[in-house]
Each structure stands twice: as structure tokens, then as C-alpha cells.
């Protein structure tokens, strides 16, 4: 029999509710009847992360300052999916799909576009604290089509890295966005799976000829 593990929300106070974030303090009742507070959580819009590689197999990364850890990080192109309301939270009505947002963010942040896309995973961005989701995509054979078109709050540079260089950054703790590390591992797994399929097809063809 399935265990009853769900909590019941009893009350919520919106501590900050501006154009950027809905930050809340909540009280919950546990399944055994105990009540505990405060639990803090927030709402922001869903976003996309793009593992993008160019026609030479180099990966398109961006460098930008992240105020949470107060450091400049190396990561993949990423950004929010635009809502009808223009707000960071609220109604789940969007003016674009996750894929359209991924294509737009890749173009705006790097100037590159691609016709070869795969959706790798949709996952909660931070299930403990937030209610938004990360949509992870892979874009291959990217080509330069335009210059950067950054938002007013964005200051970032572009850096092309090899797979070996990204692996090194991850293992030394210098690729510092958790969802982006997960995105890399998913993209690597997808590539290895594709290579296995190709190898098996080649073996089968050779066997047929023999």
C-alpha cells in the first residue's frame, strides 16, 4: 500500500511579490498531524538550457557573473520562457513553446542557430524551494547567423569548448550550474547511444555482405 507522505499547506504569506519573484513563507501539516513553519519557497518562470555544438563539434558556452555565488561561471546558453503577462511568475500562459524559447535564447546569447534539435528532459529546477521547471535541449551543427542580442540585465561572453575541456571543468568544480552539468551528462549519454546504434547498424550491414 502506498504511504501517505504528502503535506497539507495551512497558510502562506507572500513576503516579496514583485515583477521578478513571488517569495513565500508557508505553514504545513505533516501526515502525522504535526504542524511546522516556516518553509520558504518561490515562483519564477520555466526556463530552457541548451547543450549546443557547432559544425566542428565545439560546444557553445557562455561566461557570466552569478550573484548567488558571486563568481563568473561557465555554463550553457539558457533563459526563461516568455509568459503572456510578461511576469516571472503567475499564469502558465506562454507566448512561446519551450523549443521556441530555446532557439531564441541560443540566438540571442551566442548568435548561433541550428536545425538539429532534441529535447532531452524536463525536470523541476529546484523541487525543494521552487515550482518552476527546466526544459533541457540539445542543438547540433550550430552555425553563426547574427550577433548577440542581449537583455538589459545580461553581460556575458561566448566561449567554445571541446568535450574534454567541459569534462575537466566539471571535475574541477568550475562548471558551476547543477542543471547544466545534468544537461551535459544527458547529452553525452544521448551521443553515446546514437554511436552504439550506428555501430550496430554497421556490423549488421557487414554481416549481410559476408
Describe the 3D structure.
There is one protein chain. The protein is of the alpha+beta class. The protein folds into two domains: 8-43, no CATH class; 47-195, Nucleoside Triphosphate Pyrophosphohydrolase. It has three helices and eleven strands; from the N terminus they run βββββββαββββαα. Strands 4, 7, 8, 9 and 10 form a five-stranded mixed β-sheet that branches. The longest helix has 32 residues, at 178-209. The relative contact order is 0.16.
Key words describing this protein structure:
3 helices; 5-stranded mixed sheet; 11 strands; 210 residues; 38% strand; Nucleoside Triphosphate Pyrophosphohydrolase; alpha+beta; 3-stranded antiparallel sheet
Would you kindly provide a brief summary of this structure?
The chain has about 210 residues and is of the alpha+beta class. It has helices spanning about 100-110, 165-170, 180-210, and strands at about 10-15, 20-30, 35-45, 45-55, 60-65, 70-75, 80, 110-115, 115-125, 135-145, 155-160.
Sketch the topology as an H/E string, one letter per element. EEEEEEEHEEEEHH
CATH class of the largest domain: Alpha Beta
List how many beta strands DSSP finds: 11
Question: What is the domain tally?
Answer: 2
β-strand percent reads 35-45%
Helix run count: 3
Whole-number mean pLDDT: 90
Question: Would you spell out the secondary-structure blueprint of this structure?
Answer:
Elements: E1 8-17, E2 22-29, E3 35-43, E4 47-54, E5 59-66, E6 71-75, E7 78-80, H1 98-110, E8 112-113, E9 116-124, E10 133-144, E11 156-161, H2 163-171, H3 178-209
Parallel strand pairs: 4-10
Antiparallel strand pairs: 1-2, 2-3, 4-7, 5-6, 5-11, 8-10, 9-10
Amino acid at each position: 500500500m502506498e504511504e501517505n507522505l504528502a503535506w497539507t499547506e495551512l497558510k502562506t504569506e507572500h513576503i516579496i511579490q514583485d515583477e521578478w519573484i513571488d517569495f513565500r513563507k508557508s505553514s504545513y501539516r505533516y501526515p502525522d498531524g504535526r504542524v511546522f513553519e516556516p518553509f520558504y519557497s518561490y515562483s519564477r518562470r520555466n526556463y530552457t538550457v541548451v547543450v549546443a555544438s557547432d559544425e566542428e563539434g565545439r560546444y557553445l558556452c557562455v561566461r557570466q557573473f552569478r550573484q548567488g555565488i558571486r563568481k563568473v561561471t561557465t555554463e550553457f546558453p539558457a533563459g526563461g520562457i516568455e509568459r503572456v503577462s510578461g511576469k516571472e511568475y503567475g499564469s502558465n500562459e506562454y507566448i512561446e513553446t519551450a523549443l521556441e524559447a530555446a532557439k531564441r535564447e541560443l540566438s540571442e546569447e551566442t548568435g548561433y542557430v541550428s536545425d538539429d534539435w532534441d529535447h532531452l528532459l524536463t525536470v523541476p529546477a529546484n523541487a525543494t524551494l521552487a515550482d518552476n521547471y527546466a526544459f533541457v535541449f540539445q542543438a547540433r551543427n550550430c552555425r553563426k547567423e547574427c550577433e548577440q542580442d542581449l537583455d538589459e540585465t545580461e553581460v556575458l561572453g561566448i566561449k567554445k569548448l571541446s568535450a574534454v575541456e567541459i569534462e575537466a571543468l566539471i571535475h574541477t568544480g568550475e562548471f558551476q550550474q547543477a542543471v547544466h552539468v545534468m544537461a551535459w551528462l544527458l547529452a553525452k549519454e544521448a551521443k553515446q547511444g546514437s554511436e552504439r546504434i550506428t555501430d550496430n547498424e554497421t556490423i549488421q550491414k557487414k554481416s549481410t555482405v559476408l
